[in-house]
Design goal:
alpha/beta; Rossmann fold; 15 strands; globular; 14 helices; seven-stranded parallel beta sheet; six-stranded parallel beta sheet; 406 residues; 2 domains
Amino acid sequence: MAKIALIDLVINYPPHGGASIDVLQIGSRLAEEHEVRLFIPSFKSRAFNRCRIAPGFPLQVCREEFTPWSFNWQEAPRRFRKAIDSFQPDVVFLTDGWYLKPYLALALKEYPLVLRLYAHELLCTKGKGYFHRWGRVCQRDHLRDSLLSAAGCKLCTLWWIIRHHNRVFAQEFILSLAVLPRFREVVIRALRQADQVVVYNHAIKEKIEEFNPRVWVVPSGVDTELFAPAPEHYSEEEVGLLMVGGADDPYKGFPVLKNACHKLIRRGYRINLMVTSRRRFPEDFIRPLGWLPPSQLAEIYRKADICVVPSLWPEPQGIVAVEAMASGKPLVASDIGGLKEVVRDGVSGLLFTPGDPEGLAGKLAKLIEEPELRRKLGEQGREEAVAKYRWDVIYHTYYRKIFSDL
């Protein structure tokens, strides 16, 4: 039995998204075989809506108290290092965080370190690492480009922060000195120092291997008992489409889906579109669902006929795609990022060119017109989810090996 210090700078419980669910599922399984302690920052400011842990959390939690101003590139690593030293772990597992994450990695250099990149958060400084600007996937690389070119990444990030009025990102971006050229050297040193790096698709692995060859491509999982198929209920009158996750996020591609739906309606198809959004829409075929916890979300999947993931940015994996597959639903997804590794075109779903409403409408029309294809893709997607993405499979296939190698 090893002592594992699990550090997460943004986790919430109940979980608000796939990253927190991932940490919870893997951390719980590690705790069955090891002594695991979760270290998190705690903020008194209401502006920082993160690291709020409700009763019932299955891991022992150690909170480090910060104000928004003390959570900076000097103080945060020092305090976490002191807390970790008091625990004396055999290994540190540094999971989610934003701009301060590489500083913590460097502060803990005496410990064996597993560094996880849930998205592109160290490879792109914009938001959560969107790698998307001016309506297309960004080709800049702030870790390799010239200083002049990399400066454009800082301007892009600042513009994103201003446009979205994101005070939380702004404060950490400034207090981590991510606005300065030296930040990329901090990131590169952190990547090189890690004993193992966990990423979610091969494109991210290729960006990192130059700095650290010890990279594992590990998919995120799904609860295949919660997300499970329901009896077929296809209606000949109307087809139910479902988009889960970030309909209000411009990088998730909702306008592309809405445009495709208008095209289908003009061609005579009867559809209704369910989206996880609190907005009201003028279109009577759109049904906003608001934010839903996983238990309610699983039921919504079962009510849908076709699930759609129209992302514009290179999703690290696309958890909603795996949830749809586990639910036995036919899936149409963007041919981009981790989605094209999860969704096998013609086997577990159909892929379309990102940002192409005409192409998306064509794929949806094909599924609407061919109920047998819908059934076949749903069944095959379910089989793949059970075989490859169950949490126990993820843990035993990857994480046991990762931590046994340290």
